[in-house]
Fold:
Amino acid sequence: MSLQIPLSFPVFKGSENLYTQQAISSGHIATFGSFINKFESKLSRRLKSHECVALNSGTSALHLAMVLLGIGAGDEVICQSFTFCASANPIVYLGASPIFVDSEKSSWNICPEILEDTILSRISKGKKPKAIVVVHLFGMPAKMREIMEISTKYNIPILEDAAEAVGSKYLDKSCGTFGEIGVFSFNGNKIITSGGGGALISDDTALIQRAKHLSTQAREDLPYYHHLEIGYNFKMNNLAASIGLAQLEQLDSFIRKRRAINANYRSLLKDFVGISFQTEGKESKSNYWLTAILIDKEKTGFSNNQLRNSLMKKGIESRFLWKPLHTQPIFNKTSYYGGSLSEKLFENGLCLPSSVNLSFQDQEMIVEIMHEELSKTFK
Ligand SMILES: *Cc1c(COP(=O)(O)O)cnc(C)c1O
Structure:
């Protein structure tokens, strides 16, 4: 059965067709072309004092960021456990080990107190972590003030995985611009898409230059191919950048729409006992890429999976939250610090449809299905 209401579906109502046509007509569809430059400069302008390099995925942006932070074999890197595997996989690509840390209950992102305990514990074991990977899940900013303080106190750089938080703000500053390096994703279901793509962000011009060099096979500026170090084929192509630019021009309207969708869910569900949301602190402004809820089964009588199945029967897609990485078979030999919060979030959470073109009637229907579930259990 085809889905009538997908979780998060892209909308192409801007200049996508025009720009891709222009890219094709120019003959430049690979890693050289004017749309790459336009995309990078438009994104950089949004980030104020920061610059960016456009890459072919968020995962390669994280991988390159870790190369630039000097992470290598035998190192330890702290990473939020409650996230997508791509936040941590590059640690393993480089021969380093992830050390996973639990979340805190308001933003659902890395818990500053447990982070500090983790650093102290690793230092006492004789190994100071090389970096801290912080994620802004579903667009919700992490507790950056506290996390930055810890980073400064122990002199450990932050790598900000803002893959889901393009356009989110904290203290009126863009997510992705707090860490030594930040990363965005423009994959198909993110708030803006270039088909596949990512960006690496920094306020250090030399570092951005180096990222550009390394992401294009570290080719020296000579008439023949000459290489002084191992590079990567990570650059975004011009065709992807043409779509990305058109999407970037619509980012503010997409954020307004996704925030309105979140506000509608909150008001439609405000008297629904047992349903709660991520907390947006007063310093935070989430892009609300996805609206996620927690279901207290004791109060609602239905679990996240029961609701997921009932929605699916009506052609409505919803999705589990990220399964904590410390519980993933691929990471079963890694260290974990914290309690059971991230596991509880996974066990009780569900992401609701949040596409830009979701109508208010769709949202009412979704909430109606939740009421039907509730009456089934308490009739
Ligand atoms: C999507 C995502 C990534 C990876 O981005 P890709 O562009 O798909 O490689 C990394 N981290 C998080 C938290 C993501 O949601």
Q: What stands out?
A: The chain has a mean pLDDT of 96.
